[in-house]
Fold this sequence. Notes:
α2 packs antiparallel against α10. With 292 residues, the protein is α/β, with parallel strands linked by helices. Strands 5, 8, 9, 10, 12 and 13 form a six-stranded mixed β-sheet that branches. A three-stranded antiparallel β-sheet has the order 3-11-4, sandwiched between helices. Strands 1-2 form a two-stranded parallel sheet. The termini are far apart. The chain is globular and about 60 Å long. The longest helix is centred in the N-terminal third of the chain and has 17 residues. 32% of the residues are buried. It folds into two domains: 131 residues, D-Maltodextrin-Binding Protein, domain 2; 99 residues, Periplasmic binding protein-like II (D-Maltodextrin-Binding Protein, domain 2, 3-Layer(aba) Sandwich). α2 links the parallel β1 and β2. It comes from Magnetovibrio blakemorei.
Amino acid sequence: xxxxxxxxxxxxxxxGTVANAEPLRVVYPAExxxxxxxxxxxxxxxxxxxxxxxxxxxxxxQESMNEARARSILEAGDGxxxxxxxxxxxxxxxxxRPVRIPMYRGLLGHRIFLINKAKQPLFxxxxxxxxxxxxxxxxxxxxxxxxxxxxxxxxxxxxxxxNLFPMLNGGRGDYFPRGxxxxxxxxxxxxxxxxxxxxxEELTLVYPFAMFYFVSRSDVALHDAIRDGLAAxxxxxxxxxxxxxHPAIAGALKKVRLNQRxxxxxxxxxxxPETRAIPAEYWYDGGQAGTK
Length: 292
């Protein structure tokens, strides 16, 4: 057989292998009462998979679940759930396989405060992180943010999530740091029964905080497809375009006005060296100058 003939056979075999490759099985968590298919994490995941060039089949898990259950099923690695997304921690990165490109570009580490509206003058006087030390922050039980805030010398009290809003409304805490995509939605939902609640008007508390896609430790193929697809989408600008245009993000940023707020910066002592090494261009800075 000629050299050209051999080459033709190799090419045919290669494309035959690609055509017959098993599609990646992508099963993601669904949440009760939410339009999961149009949620930003799902749309970004689908963008990454398209950009990866790998064949895939994508579907939601058959039942709604909370984060703890999703982590447990994913860690089992039985294929019932193959990908989920969480705010990262050292523990999660050891038990699961993280895709170390921050889905929200670190935006969830930009925290604004729910407060009792009568306390706005107190926060208007805050100029540095040290000015927050006498005040009491509220957080949910078991949240990683508790250790981050305490590590910066801030006072923190915890309670069940639904109890935090009446606590704040009744003055049993000074502020409740929330992600910029969370605060106004929570005010709308919980403010009806807690009329003293308001979104603080002048401050942003910022710390490095990434939400990652996670797969089971054994699912290298899906991990690599998501990682390579996200990197390709970032390189061609389609990642940024989705980030800037998705209603859940664009609407929140318009309301929050990050570039008009005083930025207070603290460290995240829970962040692993590998996550700290993520290139700077992946992180959103909000156009703010900051103080510590």
